[in-house]
Design a protein that fits this description.
Layout: H1 8-20, H2 23-30, H3 34-48, E1 53-56, E2 59-62, H4 64-92, E3 96-101, H5 103-120, E4 125-130, E5 144-149, E6 156-170, H6 172-177, E7 192-195, H7 207-213, E8 227-228, H8 231-239, E9 244-248, H9 249-258, E10 262-263, E11 269-280, H10 287-303
Parallel strand pairs: 3-4, 3-5, 7-8, 7-9
Antiparallel strand pairs: 1-2, 5-11, 6-9, 6-10, 6-11
């Protein structure tokens, strides 16, 4: 048997014949003549040193070796097609960086600050998709993933973007209404908003734990009030003046900077989780991807230097 591989055309003809169980239908599918199909199959059988089909009237049956090879060849042609598509995709969109981020991070942080990236890198575009799972659940052709968790997983090249902490926040009107400028005891009589989720970091404090950590007897009302399993909704309700909330610092920062929220008492509770930035292994680091990673590192550290 020759060491050189057979031609891709012959393998493609074989896969079509095997799938259709017919040389004639394969010729129609590939847009070539039945005679050309026969020539390619003969050449491939000569290379393999064994018949690949058994002719039975108008249909053909695969030999055992052909049956074994067909799934691998089908998968291989699929990967070739996908790879060729990526070459064209990257050529047409060489100026684009595809970013996958958790929904709340995208809405509360990334999209509110992308004007800075556009100003610094007007030659590049950012396409944003939302997915809470990061590399394990994100889009296959994405360049950068941002995810929240205790670790970054082991499926990508990753680094911590920003370590998180929890801060009590409320709207300026709420602060004035309940006299919160006088200290945390004002919260005893104030409506409280609660973040609850089965995916929450166990180090994330709830209101009873927060009161206890500050030496305040936890009032009965500390367990009452509206509950949200989405941190963005929690922050939005606090901005609307419906209660005080324990919020993720990085997500609340744009509203704190704008004056829509007040960080109460200068209080900060570190948690173990962090936002991680990662990119797929084995992929070339294109200029727009490197630019985005450099920009978001600087942006987060400039806005929240205390989180690093």
């Amino acid at each position: 048997m020759n060491e050189a591989l057979p031609s891709l055309t012959a393998l493609k003809v074989f896969a079509s014949c095997a799938r259709n169980r017919s040389f004639t239908r394969a010729a129609d599918e590939l847009g070539i003549t039945p005679g050309a199909v026969t020539q390619h199959i003969r050449a491939l059988e000569l290379w393999a040193g064994t018949p690949l089909f058994r002719r039975t009237g108008r249909s053909v049956l695969l030999t055992t070796k052909a049956e074994a090879a067909l799934p691998l060849l089908t998968e291989g042609f699929g990967q070739i097609s996908q790879g060729a598509g990526l070459l064209r995709f990257e050529d047409e969109q060489a100026h684009v960086v595809n970013v996958v981020a958790p929904p709340t991070f995208a809405a509360k942080w990334l999209l509110t600050r992308l004007d800075g990236f556009r100003r610094d890198y007007p030659e590049f575009d950012v396409w944003v998709s939302v997915d809470a799972q990061g590399p394990r659940g994100g889009k296959a052709q994405s360049d950068v993933y941002i995810r929240y968790g205790l670790d970054a997983g082991d499926e990508s090249i990753a680094e911590p973007l920003v370590h998180d902490e929890v801060v009590p926040v409320a709207s300026p009107e709420f602060v004035e209404r309940y006299g919160l400028g006088n200290g945390p005891t004002g919260l005893i009589a104030a409506p409280l908003l609660h973040y609850v989720s089965d995916k929450i970091d166990p180090s994330f404090p709830d209101w009873p734990a927060w009161f206890q950590a500050h030496g305040i007897a936890s009032p009965l009302e500390s367990t009452r009030g509206s509950r949200f399993d989405h941190p963005g909704l929690l922050i939005d309700q606090a901005v609307s003046g419906r209660g005080a909330a324990l919020a993720k610092r990085i997500l609340a920062t744009p509203d704190i900077i704008s004056g829509r929220l007040v960080q109460l008492f200068g209080d900060r509770t570190p948690v173990r989780s962090a936002y991680w930035i990662s990119r797929p292994r084995g992929r070339t680091l294109r200029p727009p991807v490197q630019a985005f990673i450099d920009w978001i590192r600087t942006d987060v550290r400039t806005a929240c230097p205390e989180l690093h």
